[in-house]
C-alpha cells in the first residue's frame, strides 16, 4: 500500500495528467455519439420516468416531490455502478498505459472516475434546475446544499475503493464481473432509491449504517431537498466505510497489481 502511495506522490504533473486522461475518456464515451453529453442525462431521465409511473401512478406512492426524490437517488447510484462496473477489467483494457508509459496504476482509476464525475455534475446541475424551477413540491435549496460536495467526495472514495478491489480480484477470478452485476442488482433494491426513508428503516432497521450507498442517498436528500444538515453519525459511518475499502483496495493493488500485466 505504501509503495503505491509513495509512487503516486513522487510523480510530478499529476493533476495535468489526470485531467488529460479524464478528458480523453470522456470524449471517447460521449463525443463520438450524435447526442453527445445528452446520453449522460438520458439514462436517469428514462429511469425516473419508469419508476415514477410504477410507484407514483400505479402504486400511489405518497413521497413528496417524488420525481426529484428518485432523480437524486438515481444519479448517485448510477455514478457508483458506472464507476465500479466500468473499472473491473481496467488493468486489462488499459494495460498499455501502465506497461508502456510507466504510468501509476492509481492514476488510471482516478482519471476514469473523474471522467464519470463530469457526467455526474452535469446530471446534478439538471437536478438543481428541475427541483428549483419545475418541481411543484420543491422546498428550495439553501446553504446546507453545499454538503453535497462532501457527500460526493465520500461517494468518489467509496467507488474508487470498490473499483480497486474488484479489478484486483478480476486478475485471479474473471467471473467477478458477473458476480458484481448480480450483487449491484441486489444492492439496488436494498437502497432507498424509490421508497421513502421511514419505510426503509421500518423494513431494514439501522441498515442505512450497513449500506454506505443508502447513507449517502439519504443524506443527499436531506441537504438538497429538505435543506437540513446531513445525519452526522451516518456521514461518519459512510466516510469510514469508504476509507476502509480504499485502503483494502490499495493493499490488493500493491500485492496483485504488479502481476496484472503477466496474468491478464
UniProtKB/TrEMBL annotation:
InterPro entries: ABC2_TM (IPR013525), ABC2_TM_bact-type (IPR047817). It is found in: Cell inner membrane; Cell membrane. Residues 35-256 form the ABC transmembrane type-2 domain. The chain crosses the membrane at residues 35-54, 66-88, 108-134, 146-172, 179-195, 234-253. GO terms for molecular function: ABC-type transporter activity. One of its GO terms (biological process) is lipopolysaccharide transport. Its main location: membrane. One of its GO terms (cellular component) is plasma membrane. Keywords: Cell inner membrane, Cell membrane, Membrane, Transmembrane, Transmembrane helix, Transport. It is a multi-pass membrane protein. Belongs to the ABC-2 integral membrane protein family. This is Transport permease protein. It comes from Pontibacter cellulosilyticus.
